């Protein structure tokens, strides 16, 4: 067997093939449900990707979940370390074995096996597990001491009530978590032998190692490294993230913007990312979406990060006729890269025609989609100018926009020249 001290290649195996029905969500397994606006699986994977000593990440998914997996990990910062996902089996043990077999070509020295439904794993827990392996252990489980008094219960008939039948001594008891770390060759062999022997129902990979006769060490876990199982767990996880984000992003900024485009011959206008039939079009270097332009400027204003003309100069021919959703998406991504969040986007469209009301909800949905926001954080309103001014004379359309952001107090704009 290889010496632990010489191990340099670390792989992480994330088990995400379960159905997670107890967490609700209908057809969406819990690992693809969102907490704090981000899929559970994505948070889990990115937690490991942020640890320098982790070289690669292998995710095991259900055969029916590829579309949800791709959507959850689209644009993730973990992509540089992610291997293509592999299909799971009929049980957790089978899924882990499939993942381990997929990692054989990479030949890692060590592997950390982790449940996708534990998105709060910290770098300290990951490093403690790796340090235990580097210190000579061949199998390690992250765990926390049991603090609660434990009672042994028995269901009594006919009332089916539970009666206490004794108190369990908690000294020496630990609550196992993941990640669980192993010498790769050891745990692969243990899973292969368990499968060949028809041994099933082992609840974690440390149990597989124990069955194989491997000594399993304990490394410090974290009480916050909880597993999402029920709908209540999911709701609690969402609350935790929201509170963390409020504490981290307590610099609330509000900025306004204004944009206007004149009419020219055509048969539709683009407003809020939606094509609306009209007897004229809006004139502009791009698609002249006056709503998205104003929202983009409002976000950039709150970021103190220039304006739409600075980042997308109208003198640059590559933006001729360009769809304006890419401008708004760019601004929203600047907020995310700053470690912040968009609290609200509000747009007021000023025109006599076309009527915005029938298209309002489609515009809200499209803006929310572009910015990856809940639609409840997007407002679109419309008004006329009572036949006054250029909008009253139907010479063009104007939009006033407001963006409310939450940013870290130490935020600085990416482009100092702005």
From TrEMBL:
In chain numbering, the residues marked as site (Positions MEP for the nucleophilic attack) are: 170, 227
Q: Could you tell me which PROSITE patterns the record lists for this protein?
A: ISPD (PS01295), ISPF (PS01350)
Tell me one GO molecular function of this protein. 2-C-methyl-D-erythritol 2,4-cyclodiphosphate synthase activity
Reaction(s) catalysed by this chain's protein: 4-CDP-2-C-methyl-D-erythritol 2-phosphate = 2-C-methyl-D-erythritol 2,4-cyclic diphosphate + CMP; 2-C-methyl-D-erythritol 4-phosphate + CTP + H(+) = 4-CDP-2-C-methyl-D-erythritol + diphosphate
Entry binding sites for 4-CDP-2-C-methyl-D-erythritol 2-phosphate: 259-261, 285-286, 307-309, 383-386, 390, 393
> What role does it play?
Bifunctional enzyme that catalyzes the formation of 4-diphosphocytidyl-2-C-methyl-D-erythritol from CTP and 2-C-methyl-D-erythritol 4-phosphate (MEP) (IspD), and catalyzes the conversion of 4-diphosphocytidyl-2-C-methyl-D-erythritol 2-phosphate (CDP-ME2P) to 2-C-methyl-D-erythritol 2,4-cyclodiphosphate (ME-CPP) with a corresponding release of cytidine 5-monophosphate (CMP) (IspF).
Protein name per UniProt: Bifunctional enzyme IspD/IspF
Organism of origin: Stappia taiwanensis
Output the lineage of the source organism: Bacteria, Pseudomonadati, Pseudomonadota, Alphaproteobacteria, Hyphomicrobiales
User: What gene name is listed for this protein?
Assistant: ispDF
